[in-house]
């Protein structure tokens, strides 16, 4: 249950309590003793306050606007003053004092959201009624003390319980929100793992047949074509691993990973970079790096890789000593333009992506 629902339920309960007290207990006392006009005015003020709060509750408003709360609190205190000063002689805190306990319930009803204000205003109400009792000087002090202590302690106890319920509701709502957030994070983590797994499976499409052929003895490592396939697979795997690293410049990181594999094979590679890093989507990075990775995989001797980044374009180019580029499965381009040519033992390849 939300904090709003709990507060609305508590305020509804207080409305029921106030209605029961006002009709079942205080109205007979008011009508059964000789009270003047101020007492009936006070009763009418309290009834108007009850109508305002009940109207809010009826439409599902759990909280009172501070201006409304201040206005109806002033009306309740005014009713308290009228009711106390309008009591018959020797009636303070007695059977004819219909308003003392009822005003306390009204303060709880109106100021439930502000417990410190409730205590302060309730103390003001008690002090005024006690001062008026002392001013009249014709009542039973012991009886007055019992009425004040019993009525006030019970009402404060109810206020404490209501605040505890509200606190527990907030804690429960916070715990539920944290659990929901944890479930969301867990679901996102699982989805990311599935996406990574699917990406690895898709990128390993060229590697798995090679491993199967080697395992079945269809091809041997001494075969030149097999060594070429292994070289291509090594570059693809290294680029794939680099793709998931958390680095400031992912595109350059992936290019460097491919260059590293070629250098381990003895290829002398020079890498030239110009321009500042720009954000490049993962799919676009794959298309930009793939032609260069293919050329480096078959390079024999020297290769030159360049990365050019301008305000509107990212370009990856490679020139490598290689007899040819091995055929690849056709891939539908997303946003990258690729140009590849083989001439006189040189492979030239260029991939371009417009950022705008």
TrEMBL record:
Spans traversing the lipid bilayer: 12-31, 37-59, 66-87, 93-112, 117-135, 141-162
Keywords, alphabetical: Membrane, Transmembrane, Transmembrane helix
Keyword check for DNA-binding: no
Domain of life: Bacteria
Protein name, as recorded: Signal transduction histidine kinase
Taxonomic source organism: Lentzea fradiae
């Amino acid at each position: 249950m939300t904090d709003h629902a709990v507060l609305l339920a508590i305020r509804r309960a207080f409305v029921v309590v106030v209605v029961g007290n006002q009709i079942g207990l205080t109205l007979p006392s008011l009508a059964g003793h000789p009270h003047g006009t101020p007492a009936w005015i006070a009763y009418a003020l309290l009834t108007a306050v009850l109508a305002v709060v009940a109207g809010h509750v009826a439409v599902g408003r759990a909280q009172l606007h501070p201006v409304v709360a201040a206005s109806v609190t002033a009306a309740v205190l005014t009713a308290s003053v009228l009711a106390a000063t309008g009591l018959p002689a020797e009636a303070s805190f007695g059977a004819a004092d219909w308003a003392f306990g009822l005003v306390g319930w009204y303060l709880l009803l109106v100021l439930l959201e502000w417990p410190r204000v409730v205590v302060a205003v309730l103390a003001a109400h008690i002090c005024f009624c006690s001062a008026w009792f002392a001013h009249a000087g014709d009542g039973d002090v012991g009886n007055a003390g019992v009425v004040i202590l019993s009525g006030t302690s019970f009402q404060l106890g109810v206020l404490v319980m209501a605040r505890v319920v509200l606190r527990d509701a907030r804690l429960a709502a916070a715990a539920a929100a944290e659990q929901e957030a944890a479930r969301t994070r867990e679901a996102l983590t699982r989805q990311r793992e599935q996406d990574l797994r699917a990406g690895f499976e898709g990128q390993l499409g060229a590697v798995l047949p090679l491993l199967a052929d080697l395992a079945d003895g269809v091809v041997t490592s001494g075969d030149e074509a097999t060594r070429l396939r292994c070289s291509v697979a090594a570059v693809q795997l290294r680029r794939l691993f680099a793709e998931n690293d958390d680095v400031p410049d992912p595109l350059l990181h992936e290019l460097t990973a491919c260059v590293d594999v070629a250098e381990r094979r003895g290829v002398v590679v020079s890498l030239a970079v110009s321009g500042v890093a720009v954000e490049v989507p993962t799919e676009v990075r794959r298309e930009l790096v793939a032609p260069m990775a293919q050329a480096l995989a078959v390079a024999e001797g020297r290769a030159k890789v360049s990365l050019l980044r301008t305000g509107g374009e990212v370009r990856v180019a490679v020139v490598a000593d290689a007899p040819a580029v091995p055929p690849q499965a056709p891939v539908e381009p997303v946003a990258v333009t690729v140009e590849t040519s083989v001439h006189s033992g040189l492979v030239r390849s260029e991939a371009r992506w417009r950022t705008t």
